[in-house]
Amino acid sequence: MSFQNLAAWDRAVRVAVGSLMLIAGWAHWVPGVWDVALLIFGWVPLATGLIGWCPVYAMLGFSTRKQRARDS
Fold first, then answer.
1. Per-residue pLDDT tens for 10-40?
2. Cα distances (Å, whole numbers) of residue 20 to 40, 47, 71
3. Do 45 and 19 form a contact (C-beta atoms < 8 A)?
4. pTM, to two decimals
5. Helix axis angle, 8-26 relative to 43-51, nearest 10°?
6. Is 24 within the bounds of a domain?
7. How many C-beta atoms surround the C-beta of residue 71 within 10 A?
């Protein structure tokens, strides 16, 4: 049984976006509070992309991952 609800493309996008957010925060590309926000919230898409499970998708019953046909 698999609890993943993210497709490969969704995971790749999340890892890329999370990484870019963290890089932008560490490089101070944006001023003030936005810099701190990127450092805090950049971990969310990165972690969900690496794990392959999104709690918001799970709460909404949504998945971008194709379900495999179950062998009976």
1. 999 999 999 999 999 999 999 999 999 999 9
2. 13, 13, 40
3. no
4. 0.84
5. 150
6. yes
7. 4
